[in-house]
Amino acid sequence: MSISLVVLQGPSASGKSTIQSRLGLPRIVTWTSRAPREGESEGVDYFFRSRAEMERLYEQGQMVEMTEYHGNLYGTPLQLVEDVVGGSRPRSVILDRAGAGKLRELYRERTLLIGVKSDKEDCRRRLESRGHDPSEIAARLGSFEAEVAALSECDLILNNTDGNLEKIDLLADFIREGLKTRDDASL
Ligand SMILES: Nc1nc2c(ncn2[C@@H]2O[C@H](COP(=O)(O)OP(=O)(O)O)[C@@H](O)[C@H]2O)c(=O)[nH]1
Ligand SMILES: Nc1ncnc2c1ncn2[C@@H]1O[C@H](COP(=O)(O)OP(=O)(O)O)[C@@H](O)[C@H]1O
């Protein structure tokens, strides 16, 4: 059975978004109740929805998974995932360890779980240069050890410590090549 879902998980600022864009697969855009940051837009970074709407969808069984992170909800609507699993083109999605675990449980054969790891001090420096305030940095790094421990569940762990991006690009090429869609394979 071919892979439909490439899930990236790992600590905050380990480089999940960077690697996701280098993989070059279309993305599943998830929902959040947090406000858009400057430069973010609807349907590109997230679908920015109200907490009430997300809770309602969850109660109706329309969310594959939903977690709360720094006081905001993050969740994956079932329909988005079902469309991808039923289609022929793989997509990537960034989730925390709970969300990644849930997708793996539901779609084991169709999921490639990629863990992204960096040194804690690299993550701290990246968060500082992204301009987060100290309390937010502390909160994000507070789950660093738990996110790293959860990487043992992944199929592949990429060590994205500063200086390693070139090697990761090579691996991204291999992964993309290996994920050739059923459409391409039948050409
Ligand atoms: N479980 C789950 N986690 C998500 C989802 N979307 C994003 N996340 C996680 O939520 C975390 C926080 O996201 P965000 O506030 O955008 O921070 P940033 O990605 O670290 O800039 C991310 O690191 C993701 O791991 C989702 O739909 N479900
Ligand atoms: N290997 C690397 N070396 C140096 N900086 C990196 C590397 N990977 C990512 N970054 C930078 O670190 C920051 C966090 O990366 P990002 O991909 O947004 O992390 P995440 O999605 O895991 O929160 C970004 O500013 C990004 O440009």
From TrEMBL:
The keyword Transmembrane helix does not apply. It comes from the Bacteria. SMART domains: GuKc (SM00072). It catalyses: GMP + ATP = GDP + ADP. Keywords: Kinase, Transferase. One of its GO terms (molecular function) is kinase activity. Residues 3-176 form the Guanylate kinase-like domain. Pfam families: Guanylate_kin. The keyword Transferase applies. Signal peptide: none annotated. Belongs to the guanylate kinase family. PANTHER family: GUANYLATE KINASE (PTHR23117:SF13), GUANYLATE KINASE-RELATED (PTHR23117). Essential for recycling GMP and indirectly, cGMP. This is Guanylate kinase. It comes from Cohnella hongkongensis. The lineage of its organism: Bacteria, Bacillati, Bacillota, Bacilli, Bacillales.
